[in-house]
Amino acid sequence: MVTKIFRSLFLVGALFFSYKSYAQPAFSVQNVKGACEGFNNGSFEVLVTAGTGTIEVFYFGGGPFFGGPIAATIGTPVLITGLAGAAFPGRSYTIIVQDDISSTNGSVSILTYPALLSVTVDNVVDNADCLLSNGSIDITPSGGSGAYTYLWEEASLGFTANTQDISGLLGGNYQLTLGDPSTNCVLVLPPINVANPSPLLFNVITPTPVIVCAGTDWVLGLDGSEVGATYEVFRNNVIATGITLLGTGAPINFTIPAGSFANGDNFKVRATNGICSGDMTGVVVANIVPLPTILGVAVLPVCEGTTNTNLTYTSTTGSPNQYSIDFDAAAEAQGFVDIVNAALPVSPVGISVPGGAAAGSYNGNLTVVNSGIGCVSLPQAISVTVNLIPTISLGVNPAVCIGSATADLGYVGTTGSPDQYSI
Chain-centre distance of CA 380, in angstroms? Predict the structure, then answer.
Protein backbone atom coordinates (compact mmCIF):
# COMPACT_ATOMS: atom_id res chain seq x y z
CA MET A 1 0.00 0.00 0.00
CA VAL A 2 1.36 3.42 -0.93
CA THR A 3 0.05 6.56 0.70
CA LYS A 4 -0.60 9.39 -1.72
CA ILE A 5 -1.10 13.01 -0.80
CA PHE A 6 -2.80 15.27 -3.31
CA ARG A 7 -2.65 18.99 -3.24
CA SER A 8 -4.83 21.25 -5.46
CA LEU A 9 -3.74 24.65 -6.56
CA PHE A 10 -5.96 27.08 -8.45
CA LEU A 11 -3.94 29.79 -10.12
CA VAL A 12 -5.40 32.23 -12.68
CA GLY A 13 -8.26 29.91 -13.51
CA ALA A 14 -5.94 26.96 -14.18
CA LEU A 15 -5.95 23.70 -12.15
CA PHE A 16 -2.57 22.28 -11.06
CA PHE A 17 -1.87 19.00 -9.12
CA SER A 18 1.08 18.32 -6.72
CA TYR A 19 1.86 14.58 -6.10
CA LYS A 20 4.34 13.03 -3.57
CA SER A 21 4.94 9.34 -2.63
CA TYR A 22 6.36 7.97 0.68
CA ALA A 23 7.88 4.50 1.26
CA GLN A 24 6.26 2.26 3.85
CA PRO A 25 8.27 0.96 6.86
CA ALA A 26 9.83 -2.44 6.22
CA PHE A 27 10.45 -5.35 8.62
CA SER A 28 11.07 -9.06 8.80
CA VAL A 29 10.17 -11.72 11.39
CA GLN A 30 12.93 -13.97 12.74
CA ASN A 31 13.74 -16.47 15.53
CA VAL A 32 10.19 -17.80 15.73
CA LYS A 33 9.86 -20.12 18.76
CA GLY A 34 6.84 -22.32 19.41
CA ALA A 35 5.08 -22.69 22.76
CA CYS A 36 5.83 -25.90 24.64
CA GLU A 37 4.83 -28.03 27.60
CA GLY A 38 1.45 -26.30 28.02
CA PHE A 39 2.95 -22.87 28.67
CA ASN A 40 2.41 -19.54 26.93
CA ASN A 41 6.10 -19.25 26.12
CA GLY A 42 6.19 -18.81 22.36
CA SER A 43 8.11 -15.87 20.92
CA PHE A 44 9.37 -14.14 17.79
CA GLU A 45 11.53 -11.16 16.86
CA VAL A 46 10.60 -8.21 14.67
CA LEU A 47 13.57 -6.70 12.81
CA VAL A 48 12.76 -3.27 11.33
CA THR A 49 14.90 -2.58 8.27
CA ALA A 50 13.43 0.77 7.12
CA GLY A 51 11.24 3.51 8.56
CA THR A 52 10.89 7.24 9.09
CA GLY A 53 11.00 9.01 12.45
CA THR A 54 9.44 7.25 15.44
CA ILE A 55 8.91 3.53 14.80
CA GLU A 56 6.53 1.39 16.87
CA VAL A 57 5.53 -2.27 16.78
CA PHE A 58 2.06 -3.71 17.56
CA TYR A 59 0.95 -7.35 17.59
CA PHE A 60 -2.48 -8.98 17.83
CA GLY A 61 -3.19 -12.68 18.39
CA GLY A 62 -6.70 -12.70 19.77
CA GLY A 63 -7.82 -12.78 23.39
CA PRO A 64 -5.21 -11.48 25.83
CA PHE A 65 -2.33 -11.91 23.39
CA PHE A 66 -1.73 -8.42 22.06
CA GLY A 67 0.68 -5.61 22.77
CA GLY A 68 2.14 -2.31 21.71
CA PRO A 69 3.23 0.26 21.04
CA ILE A 70 6.74 -1.12 21.45
CA ALA A 71 9.52 1.29 20.47
CA ALA A 72 11.75 -0.04 17.71
CA THR A 73 15.06 0.97 16.16
CA ILE A 74 16.17 0.11 12.64
CA GLY A 75 18.51 -2.89 12.74
CA THR A 76 17.76 -3.88 16.36
CA PRO A 77 15.44 -6.89 16.90
CA VAL A 78 12.33 -6.40 19.05
CA LEU A 79 11.56 -9.54 21.07
CA ILE A 80 7.89 -10.46 21.56
CA THR A 81 7.42 -13.15 24.25
CA GLY A 82 4.75 -14.86 26.35
CA LEU A 83 2.73 -16.06 23.37
CA ALA A 84 0.26 -18.93 23.17
CA GLY A 85 0.49 -21.38 20.32
CA ALA A 86 -1.82 -23.82 18.60
CA ALA A 87 -1.58 -27.08 16.71
CA PHE A 88 -0.55 -26.91 13.07
CA PRO A 89 -0.83 -24.51 11.25
CA GLY A 90 -0.43 -22.58 14.54
CA ARG A 91 -1.93 -19.52 16.17
CA SER A 92 -1.76 -16.50 13.86
CA TYR A 93 -0.43 -13.15 15.09
CA THR A 94 -0.83 -9.94 13.10
CA ILE A 95 2.15 -7.59 13.25
CA ILE A 96 1.92 -3.88 12.48
CA VAL A 97 4.97 -1.63 12.19
CA GLN A 98 4.16 2.08 12.16
CA ASP A 99 6.38 5.11 11.62
CA ASP A 100 5.70 8.86 11.36
CA ILE A 101 4.37 8.51 7.81
CA SER A 102 2.78 5.13 7.29
CA SER A 103 2.45 1.54 8.50
CA THR A 104 3.05 -1.99 7.25
CA ASN A 105 1.54 -5.23 8.47
CA GLY A 106 2.44 -8.88 8.35
CA SER A 107 1.74 -12.10 10.22
CA VAL A 108 3.42 -15.04 11.92
CA SER A 109 2.15 -18.38 13.25
CA ILE A 110 3.13 -19.85 16.63
CA LEU A 111 2.91 -23.63 16.94
CA THR A 112 2.46 -25.45 20.23
CA TYR A 113 4.31 -28.63 21.25
CA PRO A 114 2.51 -30.16 24.27
CA ALA A 115 4.87 -33.11 24.82
CA LEU A 116 7.36 -32.45 27.64
CA LEU A 117 11.05 -32.59 26.88
CA SER A 118 12.40 -35.82 28.28
CA VAL A 119 15.62 -37.83 28.29
CA THR A 120 16.11 -41.55 28.78
CA VAL A 121 19.60 -42.53 29.96
CA ASP A 122 20.23 -45.69 27.97
CA ASN A 123 23.69 -46.65 29.17
CA VAL A 124 26.50 -45.38 31.42
CA VAL A 125 29.92 -47.03 31.17
CA ASP A 126 32.49 -46.21 33.84
CA ASN A 127 36.04 -45.36 32.86
CA ALA A 128 38.25 -48.44 33.20
CA ASP A 129 41.66 -47.02 32.24
CA CYS A 130 43.79 -44.28 33.83
CA LEU A 131 46.05 -44.09 30.79
CA LEU A 132 43.39 -43.77 28.04
CA SER A 133 39.90 -42.85 29.30
CA ASN A 134 37.00 -44.91 27.94
CA GLY A 135 33.84 -44.03 29.88
CA SER A 136 30.64 -43.20 27.97
CA ILE A 137 27.02 -42.02 28.31
CA ASP A 138 24.24 -42.83 25.81
CA ILE A 139 20.85 -41.08 25.93
CA THR A 140 17.60 -40.82 23.95
CA PRO A 141 15.70 -37.48 23.92
CA SER A 142 11.95 -37.11 23.32
CA GLY A 143 9.17 -34.52 23.41
CA GLY A 144 9.13 -30.95 22.17
CA SER A 145 9.43 -30.32 18.44
CA GLY A 146 11.68 -33.32 17.82
CA ALA A 147 14.76 -31.20 17.02
CA TYR A 148 17.32 -30.94 19.82
CA THR A 149 20.52 -29.24 20.91
CA TYR A 150 22.91 -30.76 23.44
CA LEU A 151 25.31 -29.19 25.93
CA TRP A 152 27.29 -31.61 28.10
CA GLU A 153 29.45 -30.13 30.88
CA GLU A 154 31.80 -31.43 33.57
CA ALA A 155 33.11 -28.27 35.24
CA SER A 156 35.90 -29.82 37.32
CA LEU A 157 37.42 -31.39 34.18
CA GLY A 158 36.73 -28.44 31.86
CA PHE A 159 34.76 -30.84 29.65
CA THR A 160 32.06 -29.73 27.15
CA ALA A 161 30.41 -31.53 24.23
CA ASN A 162 27.48 -30.87 21.87
CA THR A 163 26.60 -34.40 20.74
CA GLN A 164 23.75 -36.66 21.79
CA ASP A 165 26.06 -39.35 23.19
CA ILE A 166 29.50 -38.80 24.69
CA SER A 167 32.45 -41.18 25.00
CA GLY A 168 36.14 -41.31 25.95
CA LEU A 169 35.18 -40.02 29.39
CA LEU A 170 37.17 -39.70 32.58
CA GLY A 171 35.37 -40.21 35.85
CA GLY A 172 33.23 -37.22 36.80
CA ASN A 173 29.72 -35.80 37.08
CA TYR A 174 28.37 -34.97 33.63
CA GLN A 175 25.39 -32.64 33.26
CA LEU A 176 23.27 -32.33 30.10
CA THR A 177 21.25 -29.29 29.06
CA LEU A 178 18.80 -30.40 26.36
CA GLY A 179 17.50 -27.60 24.15
CA ASP A 180 14.75 -27.39 21.53
CA PRO A 181 15.66 -24.88 18.77
CA SER A 182 11.99 -24.62 17.71
CA THR A 183 10.77 -23.64 21.20
CA ASN A 184 11.90 -21.79 24.30
CA CYS A 185 11.95 -24.94 26.44
CA VAL A 186 15.08 -26.55 27.90
CA LEU A 187 15.64 -29.53 30.17
CA VAL A 188 18.58 -29.74 32.58
CA LEU A 189 19.34 -33.29 33.70
CA PRO A 190 20.78 -34.07 37.14
CA PRO A 191 24.49 -34.92 36.93
CA ILE A 192 25.31 -38.41 35.64
CA ASN A 193 28.24 -40.01 37.44
CA VAL A 194 31.00 -41.84 35.60
CA ALA A 195 33.46 -43.57 37.94
CA ASN A 196 37.22 -44.01 37.61
CA PRO A 197 39.03 -47.23 38.55
CA SER A 198 41.37 -45.17 40.70
CA PRO A 199 41.90 -43.35 43.00
CA LEU A 200 39.91 -45.11 45.69
CA LEU A 201 37.75 -42.93 47.90
CA PHE A 202 38.99 -42.09 51.42
CA ASN A 203 37.76 -39.68 54.09
CA VAL A 204 39.18 -36.48 55.56
CA ILE A 205 39.15 -37.13 59.31
CA THR A 206 40.16 -33.72 60.70
CA PRO A 207 37.06 -32.26 62.40
CA THR A 208 35.57 -29.13 60.86
CA PRO A 209 35.90 -26.37 61.70
CA VAL A 210 39.45 -26.90 62.87
CA ILE A 211 40.65 -24.37 65.45
CA VAL A 212 44.05 -23.02 64.42
CA CYS A 213 46.02 -20.84 66.82
CA ALA A 214 47.40 -17.75 65.08
CA GLY A 215 50.90 -18.28 63.71
CA THR A 216 50.82 -22.08 64.00
CA ASP A 217 50.64 -25.01 61.57
CA TRP A 218 47.81 -27.52 61.56
CA VAL A 219 47.37 -31.08 60.33
CA LEU A 220 44.82 -32.39 57.82
CA GLY A 221 44.35 -36.14 58.10
CA LEU A 222 43.13 -38.71 55.55
CA ASP A 223 41.95 -42.11 56.84
CA GLY A 224 43.67 -44.05 54.05
CA SER A 225 45.63 -43.81 50.81
CA GLU A 226 46.30 -45.86 47.69
CA VAL A 227 49.75 -46.92 46.56
CA GLY A 228 50.47 -45.34 43.17
CA ALA A 229 48.26 -42.29 43.77
CA THR A 230 49.47 -38.77 44.58
CA TYR A 231 47.45 -36.70 47.04
CA GLU A 232 47.37 -32.89 47.06
CA VAL A 233 45.65 -30.39 49.35
CA PHE A 234 43.41 -27.84 47.61
CA ARG A 235 42.39 -24.55 49.24
CA ASN A 236 38.98 -22.99 48.61
CA ASN A 237 38.11 -25.81 46.21
CA VAL A 238 40.27 -24.72 43.26
CA ILE A 239 43.66 -23.49 44.56
CA ALA A 240 46.37 -26.15 44.43
CA THR A 241 48.59 -25.65 47.49
CA GLY A 242 51.54 -27.76 46.33
CA ILE A 243 51.28 -29.76 49.57
CA THR A 244 51.47 -33.33 48.28
CA LEU A 245 52.06 -36.85 49.61
CA LEU A 246 52.42 -40.20 47.87
CA GLY A 247 49.93 -42.89 48.79
CA THR A 248 51.26 -45.49 51.20
CA GLY A 249 48.32 -47.86 51.58
CA ALA A 250 47.76 -46.37 55.05
CA PRO A 251 46.40 -43.12 56.56
CA ILE A 252 48.41 -39.99 55.74
CA ASN A 253 48.67 -36.54 57.33
CA PHE A 254 49.36 -33.21 55.62
CA THR A 255 50.96 -30.29 57.47
CA ILE A 256 49.38 -26.96 56.50
CA PRO A 257 51.96 -24.26 57.35
CA ALA A 258 51.12 -21.04 59.14
CA GLY A 259 50.82 -18.06 56.82
CA SER A 260 49.60 -20.12 53.86
CA PHE A 261 45.90 -19.65 54.60
CA ALA A 262 43.39 -17.13 55.93
CA ASN A 263 40.59 -17.39 58.45
CA GLY A 264 37.60 -19.20 56.92
CA ASP A 265 39.53 -20.92 54.12
CA ASN A 266 38.35 -24.45 53.34
CA PHE A 267 40.50 -27.44 52.42
CA LYS A 268 40.01 -30.71 50.57
CA VAL A 269 42.29 -33.48 49.25
CA ARG A 270 42.46 -34.48 45.59
CA ALA A 271 44.08 -37.72 44.48
CA THR A 272 45.61 -38.34 41.05
CA ASN A 273 46.64 -41.59 39.40
CA GLY A 274 47.69 -41.21 35.77
CA ILE A 275 44.90 -39.25 34.03
CA CYS A 276 42.39 -40.26 36.72
CA SER A 277 41.67 -37.94 39.61
CA GLY A 278 39.06 -37.53 42.30
CA ASP A 279 38.30 -35.58 45.45
CA MET A 280 38.34 -37.38 48.75
CA THR A 281 35.25 -37.17 50.97
CA GLY A 282 35.12 -34.23 53.36
CA VAL A 283 36.06 -30.56 53.55
CA VAL A 284 37.68 -28.78 56.52
CA VAL A 285 37.24 -25.09 57.33
CA ALA A 286 40.11 -23.38 59.19
CA ASN A 287 39.15 -20.95 61.97
CA ILE A 288 42.15 -18.88 63.09
CA VAL A 289 42.02 -17.87 66.75
CA PRO A 290 44.20 -15.01 68.10
CA LEU A 291 46.71 -16.02 70.78
CA PRO A 292 45.88 -14.96 74.35
CA THR A 293 48.04 -12.32 76.02
CA ILE A 294 48.85 -11.14 79.54
CA LEU A 295 49.83 -7.49 79.90
CA GLY A 296 51.60 -5.25 82.41
CA VAL A 297 53.54 -8.10 84.04
CA ALA A 298 55.89 -7.30 86.95
CA VAL A 299 57.53 -9.48 89.65
CA LEU A 300 58.23 -8.01 93.09
CA PRO A 301 61.84 -8.46 94.31
CA VAL A 302 62.47 -10.32 97.60
CA CYS A 303 65.26 -10.68 100.12
CA GLU A 304 67.31 -13.79 100.71
CA GLY A 305 65.41 -16.32 102.74
CA THR A 306 61.97 -15.12 101.63
CA THR A 307 59.96 -18.05 100.29
CA ASN A 308 57.40 -16.36 98.03
CA THR A 309 56.78 -13.31 95.90
CA ASN A 310 53.98 -11.90 93.75
CA LEU A 311 53.67 -11.58 89.97
CA THR A 312 51.28 -8.78 89.10
CA TYR A 313 49.55 -8.03 85.78
CA THR A 314 47.15 -5.37 84.54
CA SER A 315 44.98 -7.18 81.96
CA THR A 316 44.61 -10.13 79.57
CA THR A 317 43.16 -10.80 76.11
CA GLY A 318 41.74 -14.02 74.74
CA SER A 319 40.31 -15.12 78.13
CA PRO A 320 43.28 -17.17 79.40
CA ASN A 321 42.47 -19.31 82.45
CA GLN A 322 45.80 -21.08 83.03
CA TYR A 323 49.43 -20.01 83.25
CA SER A 324 52.84 -21.66 83.12
CA ILE A 325 56.35 -20.53 84.10
CA ASP A 326 59.37 -22.32 82.65
CA PHE A 327 62.46 -21.39 84.68
CA ASP A 328 65.89 -21.63 83.08
CA ALA A 329 68.63 -24.01 84.21
CA ALA A 330 70.29 -21.48 86.55
CA ALA A 331 67.01 -20.87 88.37
CA GLU A 332 66.24 -24.57 88.62
CA ALA A 333 69.73 -25.15 90.05
CA GLN A 334 68.75 -22.82 92.92
CA GLY A 335 65.54 -24.77 93.53
CA PHE A 336 62.97 -22.89 91.45
CA VAL A 337 60.28 -25.29 90.17
CA ASP A 338 58.42 -24.90 86.87
CA ILE A 339 54.68 -24.19 87.00
CA VAL A 340 52.58 -26.00 84.37
CA ASN A 341 49.01 -25.00 83.50
CA ALA A 342 48.06 -23.72 86.93
CA ALA A 343 44.76 -21.87 87.32
CA LEU A 344 45.29 -18.17 86.56
CA PRO A 345 43.98 -16.09 89.48
CA VAL A 346 43.14 -12.43 89.54
CA SER A 347 46.36 -10.41 89.96
CA PRO A 348 48.60 -10.98 91.90
CA VAL A 349 49.88 -14.49 91.17
CA GLY A 350 51.94 -16.10 93.94
CA ILE A 351 55.36 -17.56 93.05
CA SER A 352 57.33 -19.83 95.38
CA VAL A 353 60.94 -18.79 96.03
CA PRO A 354 63.48 -21.31 97.35
CA GLY A 355 64.51 -20.28 100.88
CA GLY A 356 68.13 -21.10 100.15
CA ALA A 357 68.35 -19.24 96.85
CA ALA A 358 71.42 -17.01 96.69
CA ALA A 359 71.06 -13.34 95.87
CA GLY A 360 70.65 -12.79 92.14
CA SER A 361 68.16 -12.61 89.27
CA TYR A 362 66.43 -15.82 88.19
CA ASN A 363 64.84 -15.94 84.75
CA GLY A 364 61.93 -17.80 83.22
CA ASN A 365 59.25 -17.57 80.53
CA LEU A 366 55.60 -16.91 81.34
CA THR A 367 52.80 -18.19 79.09
CA VAL A 368 49.03 -18.21 79.46
CA VAL A 369 46.44 -20.41 77.77
CA ASN A 370 42.69 -20.63 77.27
CA SER A 371 42.27 -24.32 78.05
CA GLY A 372 38.94 -24.50 76.21
CA ILE A 373 40.60 -23.55 72.91
CA GLY A 374 44.16 -24.66 73.55
CA CYS A 375 46.00 -21.63 72.15
CA VAL A 376 49.10 -20.64 74.14
CA SER A 377 50.45 -17.09 74.30
CA LEU A 378 53.91 -16.18 73.09
CA PRO A 379 56.52 -16.61 75.87
CA GLN A 380 57.08 -13.51 77.98
CA ALA A 381 60.39 -13.20 79.86
CA ILE A 382 60.17 -12.62 83.60
CA SER A 383 62.83 -12.33 86.31
CA VAL A 384 62.66 -13.03 90.05
CA THR A 385 65.21 -10.88 91.88
CA VAL A 386 66.52 -12.14 95.23
CA ASN A 387 68.30 -9.32 97.06
CA LEU A 388 71.20 -9.76 99.50
CA ILE A 389 70.18 -9.09 103.15
CA PRO A 390 72.16 -5.98 104.22
CA THR A 391 74.57 -6.18 107.20
CA ILE A 392 76.45 -3.69 109.36
CA SER A 393 79.58 -4.38 111.41
CA LEU A 394 79.56 -2.17 114.54
CA GLY A 395 82.60 -0.71 116.20
CA VAL A 396 83.19 -0.21 119.97
CA ASN A 397 80.09 0.70 121.95
CA PRO A 398 80.31 4.38 122.82
CA ALA A 399 80.62 5.64 126.43
CA VAL A 400 79.46 9.13 127.47
CA CYS A 401 79.21 11.13 130.66
CA ILE A 402 76.03 11.82 132.51
CA GLY A 403 74.32 14.78 130.95
CA SER A 404 75.67 14.25 127.44
CA ALA A 405 73.02 14.82 124.76
CA THR A 406 74.49 12.58 122.01
CA ALA A 407 76.74 9.61 121.47
CA ASP A 408 78.44 8.32 118.33
CA LEU A 409 77.71 4.73 117.26
CA GLY A 410 80.57 3.70 115.04
CA TYR A 411 80.61 0.87 112.46
CA VAL A 412 83.41 -0.55 110.41
CA GLY A 413 81.53 -1.78 107.29
CA THR A 414 78.28 -2.83 105.55
CA THR A 415 77.07 -5.29 102.93
CA GLY A 416 74.04 -5.01 100.67
CA SER A 417 74.30 -1.20 100.35
CA PRO A 418 71.96 -0.24 103.24
CA ASP A 419 70.81 3.40 103.24
CA GLN A 420 68.57 3.46 106.32
CA TYR A 421 68.84 2.24 109.92
CA SER A 422 66.63 1.71 112.93
CA ILE A 423 67.41 1.30 116.64
Answer: 36
